[in-house]
Amino acid sequence: MSDLVHIELEPLGEKFALERGTPLQDVLFAHGVEFTCGGRARCKGCRVRVVRGALAITPEQEQLLTREELEAGWRLACCAKAEDDLTLELGQWEAAILADNSVFAFTPGEGLGVAVDLGTTTIVAQLLDLSNAHVLAVRSTLNLQARHGADVMSRVSFAIKGDGLLRLRNLVRQQIGRLIDELREAARASSQRIKTVTVVGNTVMHHLFCGIDVAPLSAYPFEPVRDGLETFRASELGWSIPGDPSVRFLPCLGGFVGSDILAGILATRLEESDALVGLVDLGTNGEIVIGNRERLLCASTAAGPAFEGARISMGMRAATGAISKVAVERGALNCHVLGNVPPRGICGSGLVDAVAAGLDLGLIQPSGRLRNGANGSLMLAGPVSITQTDIRELQLAKGAIAAGIRLLLARWGAAPKDLTRLYLAGAFGNYISRASARRIGLLRFPLEMVKPAGNTALLGAKLALFNQTEDQFAYAPLRAKAEHVSLNTDPHFQDVFVEEMTFPASL
Question: Which of 138, 182, 185, 424 is surrounded by the most beta carbons within 10 Å?
Answer without folding.
Answer: 424
